[in-house]
């Protein structure tokens, strides 16, 4: 059905699927804020202005509307991945920490107002550059000076220097700094503190900032930061319910150092919940560009001179498969956001989860999994789309390199994805080892790979099989030391963590399809959902065969299934491209047109 005649109900339903439950007026404001020409000047002033304009359509209390918050960062990623990264840190980590962990002191309220209005840039300094897994062993100290009530923030040595995007020295910057709170020589665990890093005249007293660190994959103002007995007002301690009595007695509702770290880092849940929406937006845009390129680019190969690239099955599987994965990420964005909303309404107190390689899964296993899986799948999708667009895929104007660099960098940023998968897999295996579970899941005849229900059933069964397999291997080891027991099993644990995340996304796709009311839209999305499952199974074929979750004949049949599903998807491409593409002034749809509009020409021999 042509776009002009498509029923309004179907367009609205597709918009909600792609952009979440945001009204069109908000999306229009967001579009205007991002499409406005960059202000005069450069550096920090320009960045502050762009952060201010991005935040203007949002409610004053950002966290009252997670749908708008995630959509704003998703659109920012499509328009400019570097702006998105700065905004994620500014809004979700810096402002998020102050709002969720801080009190209502006048000092903090003024900091929030400055950050919201674009008078200051927000920074989050958690990683310490000199050691691995630094989040589990923070060494930066904030020691209470009982004579003044101030906290003295100090970096003990070079290895404890903080790493972050704090190199914008020409504007005020406010950082949230996780550090060990010490009173009277006693370490009370890791809390967050608010520290002003720079003013209009550069670094503030007690703050030392390195020269810029080059990172071409994701250009931003990365530096290392050290503190030299920097004094912070008592109100800049984001106490999160903890208190220090006049006699020096310390009380913390978290109950332990591990519990405190989990509570301090729970601000990360907002970032993890936003990342699937960001990954979905950039993947949709990349897939639309790759499909449009393949439709319009004619080849001169010997087999069929003059046919469009999209005629080739290899190209169909790649670019339509990318479109299918982008759809799955769009479904995951809804699942992650709903989970975040649920976690925000839950009480902060609760059981403390043991930490393994990182603290992230102890904060929220499913949200950490969403983050890790989303950025990896988006990195794969954007890299494949870039490759399938030839030279055009590498041009700055088409942004595919920027999308790929953003997600590739986020594989370690925001919580290392591999460590997250290790922790998930090992936790699942250990839990299974404590209880006998020989049940077979999804017994009976499986649906065809052409059905959207096939992959959710397969991945659910594979997760069960992998868990039992790893638990059995762990139970059979004679090693008394956990490291010796787990060291040879970590690769399998990582795969199990990935499959756990695959199963979350697969269930999100099923829910999205079940909730689709418009029949024409459902007819377009069903083969797209099934194609995502087939492509995911092809990527997991080695593990699926090794555990005998699928047979060799099942794997061999996937290529034909992919081709049949591509044939079913192709008639719906006008609808999908219209729905998945962002406005042309934010990101181009046609790679070749984007190049032509950036060129000027010089002709020789003209006076």
TrEMBL record:
Gene Ontology molecular function terms on file: acyl-CoA oxidase activity; FAD binding; fatty acid binding
Cofactor: FAD
Keywords: FAD, Flavoprotein, Oxidoreductase
GO biological process: fatty acid beta-oxidation using acyl-CoA oxidase; lipid homeostasis
Residue ranges occupied by any Acyl-CoA oxidase C-alpha1 domain in the UniProt entry: 276-425
Residue span(s) of domain Acyl-CoA oxidase C-terminal: 465-583
Keyword Ion transport set for record: no
A family per Pfam: ACOX
InterPro entries the UniProt entry points to: ACOX_C_alpha1, Acyl-CoA_Oxase/DH_mid-dom_sf, Acyl-CoA_oxidase, Acyl-CoA_oxidase_C, AcylCo_DH-like_C, AcylCoA_DH/oxidase_NM_dom_sf
Keyword DNA-binding found: no
Recorded family membership: Belongs to the acyl-CoA oxidase family.
Protein name in the entry: Acyl-CoA oxidase
């Amino acid at each position: 059905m042509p776009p002009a005649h498509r029923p309004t109900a179907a367009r609205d339903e597709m918009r909600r699927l792609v952009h979440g439950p945001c009204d069109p007026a908000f999306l229009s404001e967001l579009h205007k804020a991002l499409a406005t020409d960059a202000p005069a000047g450069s550096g920090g002033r320009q960045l502050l202005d762009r952060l201010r304009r991005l935040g203007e359509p949002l409610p004053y209390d950002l966290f009252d509307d997670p749908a708008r918050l995630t959509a704003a960062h998703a659109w920012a990623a499509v328009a400019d991945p570097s702006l998105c990264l700065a905004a994620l840190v500014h809004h979700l980590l810096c402002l998020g920490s102050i709002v969720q962990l801080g009190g209502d002191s006048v000092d903090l309220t003024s900091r929030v107002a400055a950050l919201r209005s674009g008078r200051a840039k927000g920074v989050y300094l958690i990683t310490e550059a000199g050691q691995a897994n630094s989040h589990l062993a923070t060494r930066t100290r904030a020691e209470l000076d009982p004579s003044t009530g101030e906290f003295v923030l100090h970096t003990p040595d070079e290895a404890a220097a903080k790493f972050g995007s704090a190199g914008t020295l020409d504007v005020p910057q406010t950082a949230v700094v996780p550090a060990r709170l010490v009173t009277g020589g006693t370490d009370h665990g890791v809390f967050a503190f608010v520290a002003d890093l720079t003013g209009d005249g550069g670094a503030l007293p007690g703050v030392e900032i390195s020269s810029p660190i080059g990172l071409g994959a994701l250009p931003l103002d990365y530096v290392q930061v050290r503190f030299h007995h920097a004094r912070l007002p008592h109100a800049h301690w984001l106490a999160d319910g903890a208190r220090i009595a006049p006699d020096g007695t310390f009380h913390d509702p978290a109950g332990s150092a591990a519990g405190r770290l989990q509570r301090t880092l729970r601000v990360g849940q907002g970032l993890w919940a936003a990342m699937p929406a960001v990954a979905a937006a950039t993947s949709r845009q990349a897939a639309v560009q790759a499909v449009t390129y393949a439709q319009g680019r004619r080849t001169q190969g010997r087999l069929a001179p003059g046919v469009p690239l999209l005629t080739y099955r290899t190209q169909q599987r790649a670019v339509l498969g990318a479109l299918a994965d982008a759809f799955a990420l769009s479904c995951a964005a809804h699942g992650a956001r709903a989970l975040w909303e649920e976690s925000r309404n839950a009480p902060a107190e609760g059981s403390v989860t043991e930490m393994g390689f990182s603290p992230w899964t102890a904060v929220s296993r499913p949200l950490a999994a969403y983050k890790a899986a989303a950025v990896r799948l988006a990195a794969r999708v954007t890299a494949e789309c870039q490759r399938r667009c030839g030279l055009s895929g590498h041009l700055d104007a088409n942004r595919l390199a920027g999308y790929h660099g953003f997600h590739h960098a986020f594989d370690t940023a925001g919580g290392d994805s591999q460590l997250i998968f290790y922790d998930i897999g090992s936790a699942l295996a250990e839990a299974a080892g404590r209880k006998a579970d020989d049940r077979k899941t999804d017994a009976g005849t499986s649906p065809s790979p052409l059905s959207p229900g096939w992959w959710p059933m397969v991945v659910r069964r594979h997760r069960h099989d992998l868990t039992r397999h790893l638990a059995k291997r762990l139970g059979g080891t004679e090693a008394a030391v956990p490291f010796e027991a787990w060291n040879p099993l970590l690769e399998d644990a990582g795969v199990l963590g990935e499959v756990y995340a695959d199963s979350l996304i697969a269930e999100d796709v099923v829910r999205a399809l079940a909730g689709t009311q418009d029949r024409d839209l459902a007819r377009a999305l069903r083969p797209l959902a099934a194609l995502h499952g087939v492509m995911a199974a092809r990527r997991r074929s080695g593990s699926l065969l090794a555990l005998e979750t699928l047979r060799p004949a099942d794997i061999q049949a996937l290529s034909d299934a992919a081709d049949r599903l591509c044939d079913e998807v192709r008639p719906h491409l006008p609808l999908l491209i219209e729905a998945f593409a962002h406005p042309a002034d934010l990101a181009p749809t046609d790679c070749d047109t984007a190049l032509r509009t950036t060129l000027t020409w010089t002709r020789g021999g003209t006076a």
